[in-house]
Amino acid sequence: MDSIRLDSFDVFVAIVRCGGFRAAALERGVSSSALSQTMNTLEEALGIRLLNRTTRSVFPTEAGQRLLERLAPALSDIRLAIAEVDELRDSPSGTLRINAPAPAVDHFLCPLAFDFMDAYREVKIEIISDAAVIDIVGQGFDAGVRFGKQLAQDMIALPLGPALRYVIVASPDYIERCGQPQTPHELVGHDCIRRRFPGGALVTWRFAEGSENIEVTPTGRLTVSSAHNELQAALAGRGIAHVFDDYAKPYVQSGRLVELLSDWSPTLPHWFLYYPSRRLPSAAMRAFLDYMRSYDWQARD
């Protein structure tokens, strides 16, 4: 037992969190074989198998799951202790891990992070694009980004960026071939580009004009899983897309896309950056939060 290195346990947690050796190796910047050797050494020292390995997946054994449940909070406490020591430094340092959906990453989180890293050169940031609702603490993230209705009650949330707006767009070629809907109800007769969430549900298109609210379940031949692919299909004339205004704006301005039903596009709530209320943020995280509060989103445009 005395020969077990503490970082071996961190490797074990990373492999389970990432779902395999390859993903964990990429995250840590080492080879898969190095992590495999570390795990073999750990299992030999403990005298028990911690991971079940198949050709397609890696998952903890019963003993591994029990160890994981005790290790995760312990390693979190160690990281917090290191962060408290970091308070004594002249400037924040360390790594921030943030989980966020791709649209929030593209238009808000990346510009904010890029400017922040210029101001705080000893802080590293890892951004993971993921639209699934996850346990950010259990998966080792410092913060996440979601809409307000998706947040757990024990989280502290701050608005990230200005309010949002979805737009309906199509290419001039599609409009010439298929016509232009005048109301949301007329979308039923069009080839809409559908998008599916990671959980499997299709995105519902919502519209509002005055006191009237309409929800449309789009119909069409093409279904994709990302806004980038939806926009790509619209540019290719494959149908009508429903995307965030920030994605479509440059193409509308250049004439490659035409906005439809603009009077029916409601303003949506902000994205929110959230983090656990029961844990003291590190110095780097507090610096990031302060920077975000004072960030000039209008200047970014």
Automatic annotation (TrEMBL):
Domain HTH lysR-type: 4-61
Protein name: LysR family transcriptional regulator
Species assigned in the record: Phyllobacterium bourgognense
One Pfam match: LysR_substrate
Alphabetized GO MF terms: DNA-binding transcription factor activity; sequence-specific DNA binding
Family classification: Belongs to the LysR transcriptional regulatory family.
PROSITE patterns per the UniProt record, alphabetical: HTH_LYSR
Keyword Kinase in record: no
InterPro entries: LysR-type_TF_proteobact-type, LysR_HTH_N, LysR_subst-bd, WH-like_DNA-bd_sf, WH_DNA-bd_sf
Keywords: DNA-binding, Transcription, Transcription regulation
One GO biological process term: DNA-templated transcription
